[in-house]
Write a structure and sequence with these properties.
This protein is mostly helical. The protein is built from four helices and two strands. The longest helix has 31 residues. It starts with 18 loop residues before the first strand and ends in a 6-residue tail after the last helix.
C-alpha cells in the first residue's frame, strides 16, 4: 500500500522555500526578510531606540568616569575640563545630547503606545517622525543656546 500523497499547501511538501525545518524537527514558515518588508518610519524609530539604549549605556559609563575624576582632585578635574572643551569633547557632548533627546522622545512614544493610544497607522507614523527627527532639532536648539549664551565656546 502506498503512503498518502501530501495535501496541497502542506508545509512538509513546500517547494517554494518559504518553510524551514528547525533543529527540533518542526517545520515552520521562514521569517520575513528585509527584502520583503518595505522600509517605513516606525522601523527606523524602533531601531533608533535600541541604538540609543546602547549609547546611553556608554554615556552612563562616562558619567561614572566623570565622578571618578571629580573625586580625584582639582588637577584631574581641570584636565578633564580641558578634554571636554576640545573639539572632540564637544562632539561627544553633542552626540550624548542627541542620545538623551532621542531616548526621551522614543521613550515617550513607547509610553503612549503602551497605554493603547497612538496605534493607528497615521498616529504611529507621526509619533515615529517626532521620535526620529525631534532629537536633531532639540539638540541643535540646545547647543545653539549654549553657544549663544557663552556657556560653551571653541
Amino acid at each position: 500500500m502506498s503512503s498518502p500523497s501530501p495535501v496541497s499547501g502542506d508545509a512538509r511538501d513546500d517547494q517554494t522555500g518559504r518553510f524551514v525545518r528547525q533543529p527540533n524537527g518542526r517545520v515552520r514558515p521562514l521569517s520575513p526578510h528585509l527584502q520583503i518588508w518595505r522600509w517605513h518610519i516606525t522601523m527606523t524609530a524602533s531601531i533608533l531606540f535600541r541604538v540609543t539604549i546602547g549609547a546611553a549605556t556608554v554615556g552612563a559609563a562616562m558619567l561614572v568616569g566623570w565622578l571618578a575624576v571629580l573625586a580625584s582632585g582639582p588637577d584631574a578635574y581641570a584636565q578633564f575640563l580641558s578634554c571636554a572643551a576640545s573639539p572632540l569633547g564637544l562632539l561627544v557632548g553633542i552626540g550624548l545630547t542627541w542620545v538623551l533627546f532621542s531616548f526621551l522622545l522614543n521613550g515617550g512614544r513607547h509610553l503612549i503606545n503602551d497605554t493603547g493610544a497612538g496605534l493607528t497607522v497615521p498616529s504611529a507614523n507621526l509619533l515615529s517622525h517626532i521620535a526620529v527627527w525631534g532629537p536633531f532639532v532639540l539638540t541643535a536648539i540646545f547647543w545653539i543656546v549654549l553657544f549663544a549664551s557663552g556657556k560653551v565656546s571653541l
